[in-house]
Automatic annotation (TrEMBL), chains A, B:
Source organism superkingdom: Bacteria
Organism: Pseudonocardia eucalypti
Lineage of the organism: Bacteria, Bacillati, Actinomycetota, Actinomycetes, Pseudonocardiales
Keyword field contains Amino-acid biosynthesis: no
SMART domains: HTH_LACI
Protein's UniProt name: LacI family DNA-binding transcriptional regulator
Length: 337, 337
DNA sequence: CTGAAAGCGCTTACAG
DNA sequence: CTGAAAGCGCTTACAG
């Protein structure tokens, strides 16, 4: 093992300098690819580094450079796998720029934003609908740290960039799809937070535009609530012939409720969701839904953060990606059509 | 904003000391709850900290203490949501001990272990089947850093703790369940790596014990391969009446293949998986499977790491949690029983 | 092109 | 109980 000195500690620039017969400063310059180093000395230093297995200590570097090359990622709810696709594209963007995600669960860690800020992260990404405490803490940061919100529509602060999909357009598209299939009684299970409100508004606008009466029931983002709410809706005398749930997890709950009540999908009931979660693609589920291009949201959120870190001082903005309607076999013509 | 000094930089122990009229060392002692500080001075320091909004810089602390309170978490494949439940319990354990997970994707980042080690993480958790390069890098670490493997059965190195479920027992339980249902032709779709081999061995042992001939087909952990392999198996003249797939994702592929071929589940074909992934609980899927208690695996992995960091020097060990058979509606009596 | 010095914000012995 | 000093491993002006 050439990588350890006699002291048992990993080599430092000091060790390298001694080995190469130069000063510590010179080693540092080589480390930073400074052009002001003669080829001969550069070679000597590089050779010494290789022999010793030298790896620069990022902690020391962080201390003097005042940046940790670390991004705090606060995920609203680590147990909801919705964030998986988003993280999948966010991480490589950070990685390309020498940044790493430091994870926190916003749900179980109300102080996450402050904690990450104390840790001197270089920036923060809020993934999913942030908790009120997270919003308050971001507000207090007052732009001292770049913050990007990914996949949510709040908070809309002057100091925060936001990347999401156009929830209004998505909700309109899926509602219009159901209207075109001849459905008149189309219920909507409402989601939480700003995203829930926007999807609901898109649904209502489309219903009104078609001369139909909206019918909403409050839900959340979970499958269980989807089951419960759908049960109530479907047991009514004049039950809807279509249900648009605010997300796929809730829509799967609707499927379950329909199975439970002996209703065939889509013959007796059309079901649509939102998010295009990976399980929605399973043929057993085959859910009509809206693809919010969440991996693109993740990538763009990473790019925004990277740009801010490299000095982009343009005013913060909201970027809305255009979502796509994905028609699968959970929706079909209204009964009698 | 009382938290910033005129210089625009956050307050340091120096600022606090000046404000409280004491030396820097004293501030440091207060920070560490040293008993050797008079109540009066302690109060003065605490008050100064509060007024200034002082937050100790963990970077400086890391440099001198030689630990970053950060754990590198290498997830074999960030796009396979299998790890979600594991992370869900691993993170809180770390958090309770002032540690945070620094994420890496083992699949897209072959150098992840070295990179995290260079970053001076205090320990490493390998989640899922590690890549060969990750194994090699862990081997090179030679115990310089505590490493725990969670949810996999490899590598079995003298320097590595391992927490997983008893894949052999789980595979035996699910196979026995199918045998008891009267199935004679039970095929197994084999998974990858050591875990795949162990589950296969459990299946084969149980088949032999029941006087039945094992029938295996090589798969991987994906749904698509599950579909393809199941198609081949089910199109054969003497098709199996039951298929045990090495994980739930592949089992869902089997369900899809069965639907495609017009086979009813479980009347014509019983299907079982392994992992009890969250989608398996959806009533549309309702997969008979093995619950490996992955959240417990995550928690124990975290506890092992924490123990190592607090000086536990007992020889490394493998902990195998007892898995549980979960019978749902995808399995039933063999045709004719 | 190169080296000696100062400093990043802490902690840790070491004296008193 | 308290303070002055050294040092963690780097980078950053600053002289030559």
């Amino acid at each position: 093992m050439p990588s350890e000195s006699r002291s048992g500690r990993p080599p430092t620039i000091h060790t390298v300098a001694a080995r190469a017969g130069v000063s510590k400063s010179l080693v540092s310059l080589v480390l930073q690819n400074s052009p002001n180093v003669s080829a001969q000395r550069r070679e000597a230093v590089l050779a010494a580094m290789a022999e010793l297995g030298y790896r620069p200590d990022p902690v020391a570097r962080s201390l003097v450079q005042r940046r940790t090359r670390t991004i705090g990622v606060v995920i609203d709810d680590l147990s909801n796998p919705w964030y998986v696709d988003l993280l999948h594209e966010l991480r490589p963007v950070l990685h390309e720029h020498g940044l790493r995600p430091l994870l926190a669960d916003g749900r179980t860690e109300p102080d996450a934003v402050n904690a990450l800020s104390d840790l001197r992260v270089d920036g923060i990404a809020l993934v999913g609908t942030p908790s009120p405490s997270a919003v308050a803490q971001v507000n207090e940061l007052a732009g001292r740290l770049p913050v990007v919100v990914a996949g949510s529509r709040e908070p809309r602060l002057a100091t925060v960039d936001l990347v999401a999909n156009d929830d209004d357009a998505g909700a309109r598209a899926v509602t219009a799809h159901l209207v075109e299939l001849g459905h008149r009684r189309i219920a909507h299970i409402v989601g939480e937070g700003e995203v829930g409100l926007i999807r609901r508004a898109g649904y209502e606008a489309t219903m009104h535009g078609a001369g139909l009466a909206p019918e909403t029931a409050q839900g959340d983002w979970t499958e269980n609530t989807g089951i419960r709410v759908a049960m109530d809706l479907l047991r009514a005398d004049d039950r809807p012939t279509a249900i648009f749930a605010a997300n796929d997890l809730a829509a799967v709950g609707v499927l379950t409720a329909a199975d439970e009540l002996g209703l065939r999908v889509p013959e007796d009931l059309s079901v649509a969701g939102y998010d295009d979660d990976f399980f929605s693609r399973m043929r057993r589920i085959a859910l009509t839904t809206v693809d919010p291009h969440i991996t693109d949201v993740g990538r763009e959120a990473g790019e925004v953060l990277v740009a801010r870190l490299s000095g982009d001082t343009r005013s913060t903005a909201t970027r809305l990606l255009r979502p796509t309607l994905v028609v699968r076999s959970s929706t079909g013509p209204a009964p009698g059509h």
